[in-house]
Design brief:
Blueprint lengths: L13 E5 L3 H12 L3 E5 L16 E4 L11 E6 L4 H13 L4 E2 L13 E5 L2 E5 L6 H14 L3 H10 L2 H7 L3 H13 L1 H7 L3 H18 L7 E6 L10 H9 L2 E4 L5 H4 L7 E4 L2 E2 L2 E2 L3 H13 L3 E6 L9 H10 L4 E4 L4 H8 L12 E6 L11 H4 L4 E6 L5 H10 L7 E6 L7 E6 L3 H8 L5 E5 L6 H4 L16
Length: 474
């Protein structure tokens, strides 16, 4: 994040604008809508000021900006679209310690003016940090079609009941639950349909019901959510909804910052990550913590990389919840084998290569791996190995000693689906050395089978185009 997103109160405060053209008009108009007093400096005004120049909070000065004009300003805009003038305004504002913005000159900006979606009192700002204003406007246009204009009316409606609700529901988590139901339920439907009287009656009824049940024991819930292999675009819609609803989140090292940034901002975050032979918190303690937090009335998000039921110990965690009567729900995620192989250009099945695919883990419960080698060594089959990077040399040798062809194609995908993804292909007898030379680290997926030969033809995901540093993939 290149800039801190804030919403500044400029009501009845002085905002300086230099310029009389389109850029200056847009800055003045936006600040006036927010309640500012505009002091504009320009020899003349363009046609864009026809609806602004007579505004009671708009003053036009037919001269250049001076240092004294910056006194008492909360913001300044150098929008003359003349480099000499705008740089002069920038210098004066910096000397006066007034935040300044010069449109299309990111190096002269203390703040960015975002594209704005106005559903007052709901306001959404979209910024590209100056990198691509056109893209920010395109995103705004898309949001215009997704967020009805009536949402502003809904926000104003519920805002009128905040004090009443605060008195009836003194506990913050009770208020949170109530407002979530109110803004997504029948009362909101009535209001959005234009029936404010029915909306008010419904909201008061729900408030009475909520105040009667608030005195009882809190009811929590656990969300066991699969976050996929890394790319946040692979999250499900349900995962995103629950990530925004949770009061507390337990997450591990496989959850990247891009995914964590989608969790509700004010949710408590607890790291319970694990490394091979180095567990931050024993599995039993994690399961008990989920139950304890839920008994406290919290909605607990257990966010797990990949799919929670495929080598994710999700079953172990909800066994404890089920035995203690804790409500829970499970949201599947794209498992690492599927996600990483897809982004690596290696189909797990193919009519000319493999009619079956088997998932195994290279990490046993007690540090020992006992694989069913007879099942693994079947023809026309793909083997996907999770958590096997640390034992890769032993695994490759074991395949060969059990009768597999040493020239059987194999691959390792490091950080699959992420911008830093790397892929190395080889054979059973060459892969371990190639991986050692490349310095691969977990997380990584191992794929064994003739489907690996399709990578040269089917590889589509280029991490360099995703903003990653250039690095060889094979």
């Amino acid at each position: 994040m290149d800039h801190l997103p804030i919403f500044l109160d400029v009501k009845d405060r002085k905002v300086l604008v230099a310029g009389g053209g389109t850029a200056a008009a847009r800055k003045a108009e936006m600040a006036l809508r927010a309640g500012a007093r505009i002091e504009l400096y320009s020899d003349a005004l363009g046609d864009e000021f026809i609806d602004l120049k007579d505004h009671q909070r708009f003053t036009h000065h037919r001269r250049a900006v001076s240092a004294e004009d910056l006194e008492g300003c909360v913001l300044a805009y150098g929008a003359a679209e003349d480099e000499t003038i705008d740089r002069h305004v920038h210098a004066l504002a910096k000397a006066a310690r007034v935040p300044v913005n010069v449109p299309d000159q990111i190096s002269l900006c203390d703040f960015i003016a975002p594209a704005v979606l106005d559903r007052s009192p709901i306001v959404v700002g979209i910024s590209s940090g100056g990198a691509s204003p056109i893209l920010a406007r395109a995103i705004k246009a898309r949001l215009e079609t997704l967020i009805p204009a009536s949402f502003g009316k809904l926000a104003g409606f519920v805002g009128g009941f905040r004090d009443v609700v605060a008195k009836r529901l003194p506990k913050s988590h009770d208020r949170l639950r109530f407002w979530e139901r109110a803004t997504e339920g029948t009362a909101a439907d009535f209001l959005l349909a234009g029936n404010e009287a029915a909306a008010k009656a419904q909201l008061l009824k729900e408030l009475n019901d909520a105040s009667e049940t608030a005195a009882g024991p809190p009811l929590g819930e656990v969300y066991l959510v699969g976050a996929g292999p890394g790319d946040p675009d692979l999250l499900t819609f349900r995962a995103l909804r629950l990530m925004q609803r949770a009061d507390v989140v337990l997450y591990d090292r496989l959850i990247g910052d891009e995914v964590m940034n989608l969790v509700r901002r004010d949710a408590q975050r607890i790291y319970v990550g694990k490394l091979p032979q180095q567990h931050t918190m024993p599995q039993e303690e994690i399961s008990q913590m989920l139950a304890r937090l839920a008994r406290e009335g919290k909605r607990v998000l257990r966010l797990k990389g990949g799919d929670p039921f495929i080598f994710g110990r999700g079953g172990e965690e909800i066994e404890v919840l089920a035995s203690e009567g804790i409500p829970f729900q499970v949201v599947p995620g794209i498992t690492a084998a599927s996600g990483c192989s897809s982004y690596g250009g290696i189909p797990l099945t193919h009519r000319d290569h493999a009619q079956a695919c088997i998932f195994v883990t290279g990490h046993g419960k007690d540090g020992h791996v006992n694989l069913d080698w007879k099942t693994l060594l079947q023809p026309r089959q793909t083997v996907a190995i999770y958590m096997g990077l640390s034992s890769l040399p032993a695994l490759m040798q074991e395949f060969i000693s059990r009768g597999a062809d040493p020239k059987l194609p194999a691959a390792v995908i490091e950080n699959g689906t992420r911008p830093e993804q790397r892929v190395v292909t080889g054979t059973l007898d060459t892969l371990a050395q190639k991986i050692a030379d490349a310095g691969f680290k977990a997380p990584a997926m191992i794929v064994i089978g003739t489907v690996v030969t399709l990578r040269d033809q089917l590889s589509w995901f280029n991490p360099e185009q995703q903003g990653a540093a250039a690095s060889p993939t094979d």
